[in-house]
Design goal:
The protein is an alpha/beta fold and 257 residues long. It has 14 helices and eight strands. It comes from Micromonospora craterilacus.
């Protein structure tokens, strides 16, 4: 299958390892992954902050860029949620019904990674190996907007060597919420403290999720407390094999004279 990678801003600028892992995983499963170079921000940040008119050119560009592809995947429930639930709405409010219709068409072909693997490709065992104790945080957009359900957990349960432990109060928000964490810093920090307490209660070495934004928030808090618990994107775990090495662990330094 030919699959277009919707890389997302955060993966492109801060966490490219999540996007690279998505490509490695899908290619290992025998699929062709292409990167449409015309892609930019999907406009989620603008829409969520109330700048719908400013988001319209981004929606238009996203639709034009990804319309030629039958399947689109992103390592982010948040951005896929925006494509599915906001793009057509923004176009309609601007009076562009043609764009809204095309946006709906692209949205129907756009998947979060676990959705693509389980629902479209029909796999749960992707041949991964990750010998760590792991807990999974279901991010708000994947849980409430996309309703991915237990798909990520089904994938993680098939990873060889992985000890999956349940996260207490898993469905509670981590407190990130994009600009929410900036505009409501005290509330965000309190929510993060609750989430970190639950993560630490599991005794896990790694906290994983399908969104780099939430992992950035949780990981930042865990790092400041020097807990030793790492955050690793779901794609990185699923892409890991005995041959490829374990994401997040120091690599052996080879010095060549």
């Amino acid at each position: 299958m030919r699959i277009a990678l919707f890389v997302t801003c955060l993966a492109d600028t801060m966490f490219p390892q999540a996007a690279k892992a998505t490509v490695r995983l899908l290619e290992r499963l025998g699929h062709e992954v292409v990167f449409p170079t015309g892609q930019t921000c999907c406009g989620q940040m603008h829409i969520n902050t109330g700048y719908q008119q400013e988001a319209l050119p981004l929606v238009r560009r996203h639709v034009r860029t990804f319309d030629p592809y039958d399947v689109v995947v992103a390592p982010s429930g948040s951005c896929v949620g925006s494509v599915r639930h906001q793009h057509a709405m923004v176009a309609r409010r601007a009076g562009d019904e043609g764009l809204a219709s095309r946006a709906e068409s692209v949205a129907e072909r756009t998947y979060e990674l676990s959705e693509l693997l389980v629902d479209v490709l029909g796999v749960t065992d992707v041949g991964a190996y990750y010998p760590h104790r792991v807990t999974y945080h279901p991010t708000c957009h994947s849980l409430r907007m996309l309703r991915v359900g237990d798909r990520p957990l089904r994938l993680l349960r098939e990873v060889r060597g992985l000890d999956l432990v349940e996260l207490p109060a898993a469905e509670q928000c981590c407190g990130f919420g994009g600009t929410f964490a900036v505009k409501n810093a005290d509330t965000s920090t309190a929510m993060l403290a609750d989430k970190m307490r639950h993560v630490l209660a599991t005794g896990a070495d790694v906290c994983t999720a399908g969104d780099s934004s939430c992992l950035m928030h949780i990981g930042g808090g865990l790092a400041r407390l020097r807990t030793g618990v790492r955050t690793v994107h779901l794609a990185e775990i699923l892409a890991a094999t005995e041959q490829s090495g374990i994401p997040g662990e120091p690599s052996e330094l080879v010095v060549r004279s």
